[in-house]
Design goal:
- There is one protein chain.
- With 341 residues, this protein is α/β, with parallel strands linked by helices.
- It has one domain: 4-Layer Sandwich (Metallo-beta-lactamase, Chain A).
- The chain contains ten helices and 16 strands.
- The strands form two sheets. Strands 6-5-4-3-2-1-14-15-16 form a nine-stranded mixed β-sheet, covered by helices on one side. A seven-stranded mixed β-sheet has the order 7-8-9-10-11-12-13.
- Strand 9 and strand 10 form a beta hairpin.
- Helix 4 runs parallel beside helix 5.
Length: 341
């Protein structure tokens, strides 16, 4: 049949306009997100903020020697929406994460983000993708080099999860804003720790920094960008290793609370004694998952926050910071000496 040309009617044009406005430019399920045509395109909403601000819970899960950080923005009182917004940053190792999420009542995940591709950060992601509906996935963009990474990417494609390009951008998850900071150019291609995605979490005036397994090289590069602010909560980089903290890093971030995710009596010697002396200096509240279980930070829409541990110790920082089991073996003289005072 010969194709016929037609001039759209006004009604047809109006229909197309309304359809475009409704569908927007969200990535389609099962497809990789197209690269932006301009550097000014920085924000990709996971779900739009509701009209009523929602409280946010940040839970640093006790997964043993690994990382998993669960962010939940629950429906606010009076909100017409019943479903919470959920993000999970890292999910390793494999043997406990799915059971923990189910026990916490997690029924879906809007954003699953891998800071980098080591098994202690992504070991449980294939099981999650098999068990829990996931909407978006992001990693650091490094080509798959391990079987676990290949399995995760296979599941992402098979389940129709949208892959988000790992670029500098802001993702909105309920009342939480996740500012994604990819590793600046120059990291060695084989150095996964120093290619970690860093996430700055913002809720009202509250800020937390989640730097994956960043080591000294990446910490210094991030400081050079000028994008590292003062924060309320710092997730210790690389499980409290000696190369995951520097005086300059703490001087810039000035956290009230430092959370360290690690296993008891792990074979890596984490947390390193020098790192602990840095973290405990200045009266910071230092919490360890091997001692406290899950570390739970609850933030209201204004950014006021409290910290509670799974073992039922509640603290309202910064008034009570520093009085923690993690720092009990480090004297004031020891920690002051570390910072050169």
């Amino acid at each position: 049949m010969k194709e016929q040309n037609a001039i759209p009617t006004a009604a047809a044009l109006l229909f197309l306009y309304v359809l475009t406005a409704l569908t927007g430019c969200a990535p389609q399920q099962g497809a990789r997100e197209a690269r932006p045509t301009s550097d000014t395109i920085r924000a990709q909403p996971i779900r739009p903020n509701s009209a009523i601000s929602e409280p946010v819970e940040v839970r640093i899960l006790d997964v043993g020697q690994g990382d998993a950080i669960l962010i939940r923005s629950a429906p606010a009182a009076g909100s017409a929406r019943e479903e919470e917004h959920v993000a999970l940053i890292d999910a390793g190792p494999a043997n406990r994460i799915v059971g923990q999420l189910r026990a916490l009542g997690v029924r879906h995940i809007d954003l699953l983000l891998a800071s980098h591709n080591h098994a202690d950060h992504i070991g449980g992601m294939d099981a999650i993708l098999d068990s829990i509906p996931v909407r978006y996935y992001m990693d650091n963009g490094h080509p798959a080099s391990t079987r676990i990474q290949q399995r995760v990417l296979e599941r992402v494609e098979a389940k129709g999860v949208v892959y988000l390009q790992p670029r500098r951008r802001t993702l909105t998850v309920g009342s939480a804003r996740l500012h994604v900071l990819p590793a600046p150019e120059g990291a060695r291609s084989d150095d996964q720790n120093n290619r970690s995605l860093t996430v700055r979490l913002e809720v009202g005036r509250f800020q937390a920094l989640l730097p994956g397994d960043a080591e000294t090289e990446l910490l210094n590069r991030l400081l050079e960008t000028g994008e590292v602010p003062r924060v309320d909560v710092l997730k210790a980089a690389h499980h409290g290793s000696r190369n995951g903290v520097t005086p300059a890093w703490l001087s810039r971030t000035r956290p009230h609370v430092v959370a360290i995710s690690l296993a008891e009596n792990n074979s890596y010697g984490h947390p390193h004694e020098r790192a602990m002396r840095y973290y405990c200096a200045g009266g910071r509240m230092v919490l360890r998952t091997d001692q406290e279980g899950d570390i739970i930070i609850r933030v209201d829409s204004a950014g006021t926050y409290t910290v509670q541990t799974e073992r039922n110790r509640t603290v309202a920082p910064p008034a009570e910071r520093g009085a923690t089991t993690a720092c009990s073996s480090y004297s004031a003289a020891d920690t002051a000496a570390v910072e050169g005072r």
